[in-house]
Design brief:
This protein has 425 residues and is mainly α. Residues 387-425 have low confidence and may be disordered. Helix content is 75%, strand content 0%.
Length: 425
C-alpha cells in the first residue's frame, strides 16, 4: 500500500491523530490520577508528581539521538514499533507493584515518546502530499488538544471509579486496537537520508532552524510555568471555586481545538503572519491573566484566547521545522521535540520554584516574560523558516552546478559526468 492507494489521505491523517490522542492521554494521565497513585503506592504526592517532570526530561534528552539511530528504518515500521513499545510500557505501568517499577515504565514511555513525535509530523506530511504540511500537522496535532479536553478527564474519571491501574490498562487496550488498524491502513514511506548521532550538530546548524528551536523552548517554558499550576492560579488568584475549575479548563481545551485547526488552515499560505499573530494573541491573554484575575468576563476571555494560541503555536513551529530542514525533517523534528519537552519539564520546575517565593498571581507575568523573549528571537532573526511568502515543504531541486544568471553551453560528456557525481537529493 502506498500513499496514492488505499484509504484517502484524510482518513490516514485522522488515524494518526487518534494515536496522538491516545499517547497524549497516557502522557498526562498521572496528573489527574496523582492522588490515587500516591495513596496506592504509599508515596508522597510531590514524589509522584516527579513522574511528569522526569518523563519530559527523558524525552528532551533522548529524542534526537534515538531518532538519529533509527533514521534508516522505513517510516511505517519505525512508527508502529515506537507505538508498540509505548503501549507495552503503559500496560506495565498499570501492573507496576511499586513506585520504582512505575518510574521505570514511565521512563520507557518517554524513550518511545521522543521518537514518536519526531517522526509523526514528517510521516503526516508525506501522506498529505507536497504543500500541505501545515494542514497535515494541524489534523494530527488536534489529537493533543482532544487529549486535554476528553482523554485525560475520561481517564481520570475511570481511574477514580475503578482504580488508576484500570485507567492505564483500558487506555492500552484502546491504543492496541488503534495500532492494529494503523498497521493495516497506513502506507509505507521510505526513510530519509541515513543519519548518525554525530550528524545532529550539522542538522542543528541548518539556516533558520536554531531560531525555531530556541523560540519553541522559551515559549513552552513560559507556558508550562503557568499551565502546570493553573489550578492554583484559578483558585487562589482568580477566586474560582474548586468545583468550577474543570469547567474553566474545558473552555481552555475547546478553544485549543479551534486554535489547532485554524492555524492549520492559515500556516501553509501565511506562515510568518500566523506565527507572529499567535504569539501576539498569547501575549495579550497572559497580560490579561496577570492584570485582572478577579475580573470574571476578562478572565474567561483570556483563558479562551490562551487556549487558542498555545495550541496553534506547535502547528506553526512544527511546520516551520519541516519547511526549514527539508533534507532532514525527522532529525530536525527531534531537536524541536527535545526543546519542547525540555520546556515542559523546566516550566514545571520554574513554576514550582516561583510558588515558593511568590503568590500564584505572579505566574502569568513570568510566563509573559519568557514568551516575549521567544518572540524577540523570532522577530529579530531573519530566518528561512519564517518567510513572508507561502510555505513550501517540497524537497529542493537537485543542484548540478553553481547558480548562474547566464546560460552556459552544454558541457562535454566528460564534464557532465563529473558534475553529476556532485548531485545531492
Amino acid at each position: 500500500m502506498s500513499p496514492s492507494t488505499g484509504p484517502r489521505p484524510t482518513t490516514r491523517l485522522l488515524l494518526l491523530s487518534l494515536l496522538v490522542f491516545i499517547i497524549g492521554t497516557i502522557e498526562f494521565l498521572p496528573v489527574g490520577l496523582l492522588p490515587d497513585i500516591s495513596r496506592d503506592l504509599g508515596v508522597d504526592p510531590s514524589r509522584t508528581g516527579l513522574l511528569v517532570t522526569v518523563y519530559a526530561f527523558t524525552v528532551g534528552l533522548t529524542a534526537a539521538p534515538l531518532t538519529a539511530r533509527t533514521s534508516a528504518w522505513p517510516r511505517k515500521r519505525l512508527f508502529l514499533t515506537v507505538c508498540a513499545v509505548f503501549m507495552a510500557a503503559t500496560a506495565l505501568s498499570g501492573l507496576s507493584p511499586n513506585y520504582t517499577a512505575l518510574a521505570a515504565t514511565r521512563l520507557l514511555c518517554g524513550l518511545a515518546h521522543g521518537v514518536f513525535y519526531a517522526i509523526v509530523a514528517g510521516y503526516a506530511a508525506a501522506i498529505a502530499g507536497p504543500g500541505r504540511s501545515g494542514r497535515a500537522t494541524a489534523i494530527v496535532f488536534a489529537g493533543v488538544s482532544l487529549a486535554f479536553v476528553a482523554g485525560v478527564p475520561l481517564g481520570t474519571a475511570a481511574g477514580t471509579a475503578f482504580g488508576w491501574r484500570t485507567a492505564f490498562l483500558a487506555t492500552t487496550v484502546v491504543g492496541l486496537a488503534a495500532l492494529l488498524t494503523a498497521a493495516r491502513l497506513l502506507p509505507p514511506v521510505p526513510p530519509g537520508p541515513p543519519l548518525r548521532v554525530s550528524d545532529l550538530p550539522r542538522v542543528a546548524r541548518t539556516p533558520g532552524l536554531a531560531p525555531v528551536v530556541l523560540t519553541t523552548g522559551l515559549v513552552i517554558l513560559g507556558h508550562f510555568t503557568l499551565y502546570t499550576y493553573v489550578t492554583e492560579y484559578l483558585r487562589d488568584a482568580a477566586g474560582i471555586a474548586s468545583a468550577s475549575v474543570s469547567a474553566v479548563l474545558l473552555l481552555f481545551g475547546l478553544t485549543g481545538i479551534a486554535g489547532t485547526l485554524l492555524s492549520g488552515a492559515l500556516v501553509d499560505t501565511r506562515p510568518r503572519a500566523t506565527l507572529l499573530g499567535t504569539l501576539a494573541l498569547m501575549a495579550v491573554s497572559l497580560t490579561a491573566l496577570g492584570a485582572a484575575p478577579a475580573n470574571r468576563p476578562l478572565l474567561f476571555l483570556a483563558i479562551a484566547t490562551w487556549g487558542l494560541a498555545c495550541t496553534a503555536l506547535p502547528v506553526c513551529f512544527q511546520t516551520a521545522v519541516l519547511r526549514t530542514a527539508r533534507d532532514a525533517p525527522d532529525a530536525a523534528s527531534s531537536l524541536y521535540v527535545a526543546a519542547f519537552n525540555t520546556g515542559i519539564g523546566a516550566g514545571a520546575l520554574t513554576g514550582g520554584l516561583l510558588l515558593t517565593v511568590t503568590p500564584p498571581a505572579a505566574l502569568p507575568w513570568a510566563a509573559l516574560a519568557l514568551l516575549l523573549a521567544g518572540t524577540a528571537t523570532t522577530t529579530l532573526t531573519r530566518a528561512r523558516s519564517h518567510p513572508h511568502h507561502s510555505a513550501t515543504d517540497t524537497p529542493p531541486p537537485t543542484r548540478t552546478t553553481s547558480p548562474s544568471p547566464h546560460p552556459t553551453p552544454t558541457p562535454p560528456p566528460r564534464t557532465r559526468t563529473h558534475q553529476n557525481s556532485r548531485n545531492t537529493t
